[in-house]
Amino acid sequence: MSKVDATSSSSSNAPSLPEGETARKEPIFREINADQADEVVEIESACMRCFQSGITRLLPTKIPFFREVVLMSFKCNECGYTNNEMQSASEIQKSGVRIELEVKTAGDLNRRVVRSDNSSVSIPEVELEIPVQSQKGEVSTVEGIIERTIAGLSQDQEKRRIDHPSAGASIDAYIERLHKLKEGTTPFRLLLEDISGNSFIENPLAPASDPQLKTSFFTRTKAQNEQLGLYEQNHDDHLLQPIAEDEWPIENLHGEVLQFATNCPNCTAPCETNMKLTNIPHFKEVVIMATVCSTCGCKTNEVKSGGGVEAQGVRFKVRIASKEDLTRDVLKSETCSLSIPELDLEVGPSALCGRFTTVEGLLVAMRDQLDGTFFHDSSDEIRKGQMDRFLDTFDNVMKLSKVITLVLEDPAGNTYVQSLSDDDTQPDDKLTVERYDRTFDDNEELGLNDMKTEGYEQDA
Q1: 234: Cβ–Cβ under 8 A, 6 or more apart, which residues?
Q2: Residue 121 in contact with residue 201, Cβ under 8 Å?
Q3: What is the dihedral of CA 244, 247, 251, 257, to 10 degrees?
Q4: What tens digit of pLDDT does each residue of 149-190 get?
Q5: Within its chain, how far is the Cα of 37 from the centroid?
């Protein structure tokens, strides 16, 4: 009886909304800032050192230039033990990421590193390898990774020197090698590989490319997918069944808007994505997808090619000197990279998704991402000044005070830039179109080197 009274009492005191109105949900993951104290969740948990009660604090947030994470901090007031972890809260990316950093100076040791639980780290020069899922995810630096390794190897060293003198001496010698790496006098390579694609290393020269930092993407193997909990459905009958000829003509798709359930990329609330197949004049068929979140109001659009990979890659060079040049229609595919040589700016294909916009819209998207994706609070004054000066130069480009050349390079050949000449099929005097043969690395990025187009029925 007392339980019923307590329940009815608590429900009667709860605030009620006017009829017909629903509570507006706030985004779960907001941009990281100094005013997020109200979003910290505190949970009482056991200390793994003294087994007394401590407090674990959780903060869901978004790291600029990266994605959603959950920061966790534990502190025990009894023994003083503390522990900090980071877990990725974003979806598993469609490709794994492999990052190679050449550490040449002491300043490179301060580069920020975001690691997920599914990442592995290796330093070939000292034969160091940290396997996948052997450590918890963390937000650290290159020096922090080495320091954490030294701390792990130093545990129980005093006892090991007594019980196993030879092993203790070998570990001491190895720890000394790691200390020399921290001094920054010996160049070495840091290799970071994440099968989930949720790790990255800071580029201090951004938005320009860093010659010391190489990033590539790879397709996961079946074993790696299973390690992430992604299993294939093995059925005798295939999931995609062939349909009879003319049973569903392609013309029906041109007038049909398809909808499917998805999650908002900003607040992860459930929403719907609209998809439509359309035809770009003088180009090819494309798939346009648009998402509008009713919870946070976020709007996104993405364009994917409706055809295959072209026989050659394509490179567009657009000279921007007048307002008319900003009005060109641009179809940027998800495999297209952007660059502005006058600003020493390079934007990889993964930075901006495929989209159908104008040259001005493309420049605005590039500027907005640069302005909102850097660690403004934690950056030093020198880097802040460099970024502010670069953004001022970018604003002058938008005001047409500076003439630039926008280069769009797509190895898949699925990018299109409108010509302003009388004959739409021929480029105008400010537009240059170049076709080129892909390199082996280009085909590797597109997954064409391992593609089998003949005799594949034998392996089915």
Answers
A1: none
A2: no
A3: -110
A4: 998 888 888 888 888 889 889 999 999 999 999 888 889 999
A5: 26
